[in-house]
Design goal:
The complex is a heterodimer. Chain A contains two helices and one strand. Chain A is elongated, with a radius of gyration of 19 Å. Chain A has one domain. The longest helix of chain A is centred in the middle third of the chain and has 23 residues. By secondary structure, chain B is an alpha/beta fold. In chain B, helix 5 packs parallel to helix 6. Chain B is rod-shaped and about 180 Å long. The chains are: A mainly alpha, B alpha/beta. At the A-B interface, helix 1, helix 2 and strand 1 of A face strand 9, helix 5 and helix 9 of B.
Chain lengths: ~60, ~350
């Protein structure tokens, strides 16, 4: 899952919860999923350190 | 050519006119040659037979006056301006009346910058006509690229500037760098190859083509047809970060976006980690508030429903002093069905009682 996907799903869940349309049981499931997504986003932002690689150049034809 | 001279004893003396004429005649024996220099002090007037300018050696500043018949000069349609380099084909000549030495030009060709500029303009027109620069061709840059490709010279500055700008803005960024020539005759094909190599890499979602500032000639590879076509054909969006604000190499036009500085390039290709964090924090806050909000809403709805239920209940009516009369568990709405002696049940706001009908009306 990419950061973008996680962020989008998380924001959708929050909207869904705030709209008050979910019943209590599914609201609890949504909330748990939201917490998980938040954790995924944080990990992607914080723990994933940047990486710089160098590509070996090929000789131009 | 014979030049008249006067003899003063054993001294042969020439008149100025004769001397000039003699030197002029001798000069005509010199070959016609090409001379290269910068055009300066260009003077052209309608009433003059000739156009004059000075060719200056950019090396040491040596000067050579040049003249050319105005008709011929105009026919060349060169629109020469001061400072341009030119190749002048001509032969040396002495203007006898003044003893001025100069180069009599037979032809002039623009050289260097001018030639390149003209070629560049032609190429630009051609590629534009093909639609290579059309806005419709431009792809959208990804907001969260998995990996960023960077084509740059192995000279430190441009590479370091772009990398620093990217990793400062978005520390988790993953960048793949392809180093190559960015200057000289090998640069254009090498850059195009590097671009294609990066494009073929897995997960590279955007490519930055970076080159620091330089002279017009230095940046020429970035207007090379091979590279410009490679940029336009690249299946991954390309950001052209070449030279400074005032430079417009053709890659700027063919790329999906142009960046005038490394930090602009970084803004285009990676998200701002701080902004993301802030947004995430706010979303989390909403997420955490959501269950309570939901419960409160459900509770409010329940209260509302209960209130309406109570309002509709007959009990409220009974409490106001009305009574319900039943017989055989049926509510009595009219006296017709009742006979004296019928047994009825009466329900009150509080409690009730059984009764026997005495008379009906």
């Amino acid at each position: 899952m990419t950061y973008e996907e996680a962020q989008r799903e998380l924001e959708q869940i929050v909207q869904q919860l705030e709209s008050g349309q979910a019943d209590l049981d599914s609201a609890i499931k949504l909330w748990e999923r939201g917490e998980e997504l938040h954790r995924i986003c944080l990990e992607k932002l914080d723990s994933a350190q940047g990486k710089i690689e160098t590509l070996r150049p090929t000789e131009p034809a | 050519m014979k030049v008249e001279a006067e003899q003063y004893g054993d001294r042969t003396v020439y008149s100025v006119s004769a001397f000039n004429r003699g030197v002029a005649a001798w000069l005509t024996r010199l070959p016609t040659v090409w001379v290269e220099g910068e055009v300066t002090e260009l003077r052209r007037q309608e009433r003059w037979q000739s156009v004059f300018f000075t060719l200056k050696d950019p090396g040491d500043g040596a000067c050579l006056p040049v003249s050319m018949p105005r008709g011929q000069f105009d026919a060349l349609r060169l629109d020469l301006v001061d400072g341009e380099r030119a190749h002048v084909y001509g032969r040396p000549e002495l203007f006898e009346a003044r003893g001025d030495f100069r180069l009599r030009a037979l032809s002039i060709e623009r050289f260097g910058l001018g030639d390149h500029l003209a070629a560049l303009e032609r190429l630009k027109q051609k590629l534009a006509a093909e639609g290579l620069f059309a806005p419709a061709r431009k792809g959208r840059l990804p907001r969260f690229p998995r990996r960023v490709g960077l084509v740059t010279g192995n000279d430190a500055a441009a590479k370091r500037d772009v990398l620093t700008a990217i990793t400062t803005r978005f520390p988790p960024a993953r960048v793949v760098v392809a180093e190559t020539y960015v200057q000289g005759p090998r640069a254009a094909p090498a850059l195009a190859t590097a671009l294609q190599d990066l494009c073929a890499q897995q997960d590279v979602d955007v490519i930055v083509l970076a080159r620091g500032g330089g002279s017009f000639e230095d940046l020429l590879p970035f207007s090379d047809e091979r590279l410009v076509r490679a940029v336009a054909a690249c299946s991954v969006p390309v950001v052209s970060a070449v030279g400074h604000e005032q430079d417009t190499p053709l890659t700027d036009l063919a790329a999906d976006a142009r960046a005038s500085t490394p930090s602009v390039a970084a803004r285009l290709v990676v998200p701002d980690a701080d902004e993301l964090r802030e947004r995430l924090t706010q979303t989390r806050r909403r997420l955490q508030g959501a269950p309570l909000l939901l419960l409160e809403r459900k509770r409010a709805r329940l209260d509302g429903a209960y209130g309406r239920l109570r309002a509709l209940s007959p009990r409220a009516t009974l409490e106001r002093g009305y009574a319900i009369v039943r017989t055989d568990d049926q509510i009595v709405r009219a006296s017709q069905g009742l006979q004296p002696g019928s047994r009825v049940e009466v329900e009150l706001g509080e409690g009730g009682f059984g009764a026997t009908v005495e008379e009906t009306r």
